[in-house]
């Protein structure tokens, strides 16, 4: 990865941070992205001290389209080429709410942000035959409801959550991106559960009813029960750097960095079209 430029969103903590550490250790030039400027600068400094590569940081609010656009502009100003984009940032809102652009927040953060950032950085990615890695989560083999993509009818249920729904929708968007876009590769990684700032702060009311009793247990025992965060970064690091994956696109890799079958909902053309069209529509309307 020496001299390769890698952008990782949500990388000043959690799985993104471990992904950054792993790729910097292979000599990559890493761009860290977080919300908090001080944390981001400190993380980049730590990486410079630990890694054999170089590191810089950018702050952006990735729940907003203007935040995504500012990030893309800064990256394009500073770098002519981008070898890897890891769309690692994910978010679990506690209730249905809309972004300033009027998009349901779970869909905006988990599906639209990776779609828009990849689209905006296509020239830099194409210039390097770049790799895009999108992170799924929750229960990724659940259904997609094309009539409920922005939780118009349902945000939470007994086992349903809009977060799980959107992570499967993200997989559909990634599949479609890989199928329709030349000059880059797009694959999906499932990290598995890890105790991270995000998972420790998971609000009880964001979980489906059936899983609520587990939330306090997860918050207290998560560090003991779950994978080490470094292990959860394994699939992302593999997809970003493995030489044998050169040119491999449109694949899904599980928590052990092994290729896995796409969920049935992702293989359904109607679901993929619905997700893709919604992404196009809300981005053009902004
Ligand atoms: N953890 C799990 O068990 C698990 C399981 C399955 C899938 N996943 C997926 O794996 C990915 C990483 O998960 P994680 O648990 O490591 O995430 P996390 O702990 O929530 O990630 C923290 C990072 O995200 C940044 N961040 C938070 N809000 C932001 C915003 N609005 N704009 C920009 N950056 C923001 C933080 O920066 P600041 O510190 O500056 O806020 C920090 O760098 C996500 O896509 C998640 O859905 C996680």
TrEMBL record:
The keyword Oxidoreductase applies. Gene3D superfamilies: NAD(P)-binding Rossmann-like Domain (3.40.50.720). InterPro entries: NAD(P)-bd_dom_sf, SDR_fam. Keywords: Oxidoreductase. Pfam families: adh_short. PANTHER family: PHOSPHATIDYLINOSITOL-GLYCAN BIOSYNTHESIS CLASS F PROTEIN, PHOSPHATIDYLINOSITOL-GLYCAN BIOSYNTHESIS CLASS F PROTEIN-RELATED. This is SDR family oxidoreductase. It comes from Kribbella hippodromi. The lineage of its organism: Bacteria, Bacillati, Actinomycetota, Actinomycetes, Propionibacteriales.
